[in-house]
Design brief:
Length: about 425
Amino acid sequence: MRVRAFRRRWTVFAAVAMTGALALSGCGGDDGEGSKNDKSEVEVFSWWTGPGEADGLKAMQADFEKKNPGTKFVNAAIAGGSGTQAKAVLASRLQNRKPPDSFQGHAGAELLDYIKAGQIDPLDDFYQQNNLKSAYPQQLLDQITYKGHIYSVPVNIHRSNVLWYNPDILKDAGVDGPPKSIPEFITALKAVKEKTKKVPLSLGAQWTADHLLENVLLGSLGADAYNALWKPGADWSTPAVAKALGEFGEIMKYTTLEAASTDWQGAAKAVVDDRAAFNIMGDWAYGYFVGDAPNGLGKKLDTDFKYAAAPGTEGTYMWLSDSFTLPKGAPHRAGATAWLKEVSSKEGQDLFNPKKGSIPARKDADKSLYTGYLQTAFEEWNDPQTKLAGSFWHGVNANNKWHTDIDTAIGLFLQSKDVGKLQQGLVSAAKNSGL
């Protein structure tokens, strides 16, 4: 299937998924002239506190401050992998009508709750004034558009389905290269456990198990069947899903026992420190691996680590996009607009993404800046033969309620190890998703 045809079908799904949300019109509410014109500072809320991502934010902040010397930049980042802690803090602030000037969110269904609650303003005029519709790929614009209005400014594209591995440990285990399928992966994990004293598959906090699940579902079901799971009325009770979940349960037997005590950085670091054979994590890990100390590890591709598509997912790009919004009632609205200009600019994205370990959302990036793994990601994202699959954990195709219910089902599974109950929980999560 050619990606162009898939993207058309995916756009239809996105529109259906957003049905019932509260439509907002125009380009922002009336927050008073003082708020609209206040550029004295900008409070930027994100969860970019870890290695690589913090460096990227710092680089973009420096460029912003150079372009806006009279505006104070307030970094309101909250630590916690994948934004789990930050989102809880943000929800409280928005409910209490104390929004930051701009906050990070994943492009796609994750923004629906903010739209329903009238907590973010459309950015149609901003896109028009800055000629952004021609700068972004159409399939990305489709994901951030609801009833003709755009609600966020993407800064990057990430890939979720990446297998990071230690070539020396695989050699010691007698594993000939990265596994291409889920059954091959399970065989490789078993070989590492039996023939070495290393950890077969490193995991971090619970959300990394959710991240692993989406990769196993994609690798077992294939792109078409995986994407179908997120359509209204999708059946999660099928034998194919049961098989995939059984494979997930088997893979979990080879993960670290101390999984709940560390975040993704520690789990990824285990691979380059020769303690673990495999880690399945998004390509933000690349920025962490190759970045300079103190925030990066200064490791070398092909020597200290290698990468491949997660087992069973070669030829498919499981994608997500970090983006920034304009909250209704932003106290420094002009400062927020200036920040969105930075986020959407070619200069800002080319400063940010090489450090973050992602590729730019804009189409006119400086390709020479994206080397090593990032060159491969850049080429595959722009290849019309590549299939696309949205990351449910990172906000593309699951709203916040569905996201939370999946996380709850996986949390119960981590305690019980009961695959049947996990499937029941996922069936219920889909039925109660609101689609």
